[in-house]
Specification:
binds fe (ii) ion; mainly beta; 7-stranded antiparallel beta sheet
Amino acid sequence: MTETMRKVTRVIPPQMVIEGADVKLRRSFGPSRANIFDPFLLFDHFAFNDPIEGPITGFPTHPHRGIETVTYMLEGNVRHRDSLGNTGVIGPGAVQWMTSGRGILHEELPKRGPNGRVDGFQLWVNLPAKLKMSLPRYQEINADEIPEVVDGPVRVRLIAGQYGSQTGTATEIAAQPLYMDVLIESGGEFEIAIPAGNTAIAYVFQGEGLFGVDEQGEGEFVEAAKMVVFGDGERLKAQAGPAKAVRFVLMAGTPFQEPVVPYGPFVMNTDEEIRQVFEDIRNGTFAKDSAI
Ligand code: FE2
């Protein structure tokens, strides 16, 4: 029996939203009770490349509970500081995989690279109910620690999950997700097995190509910048345009199938747990494992 190819079911143009201290973001989706991208909750693309976007501000101190936030930088960097006493800089090509667990307070301040650009993504991955109140954890991954697999016209940077014999750098993530940055040179083709039942999405951020290509060679033509949602199947295929390369981040994971109650930077399973967040903040026990 041949394996079924995943087709494109939806193409989402990101919406401009304003977060933090007046930061404009391109949001493909945010947390919702419908939780249609389970185990993924949010995908933001932030860039400060247009003068009308104004000065870089950032995300002053804010809390998180119940999720993992994954920052992947293409250009420029993000300086961060948190209530556990961690400080660091996420540089071009680097990743910060932050498991908030029961609670952290942090600030995230973007800075332009030498060519004046800032370009990066933030993905939120859910935590299962049993880990929402776990201790916070960080994985700081330098650009040179991410395996790069080059196969003809295809270059893959593997942040998390499995690709051929390679394993991504971020490990012990509850959702066991696949998170990779894929570049296909013009005329090239990329194919990967993704277990049936997994959610699969791709954010196309450079160029254009054909996604969800089936046995007949038919697929959906997508231009940057868009979020592509794939239907179920066992394999996924994409092709670059004949004259243009295409670059995208591909994400896949097994849905937790648990109720989701989001409230700003918190994502819990019940309304009661959200009320508890505010009670913990009020009585000073929100980030009690933290220095501040
Ligand atoms: Fe944050």
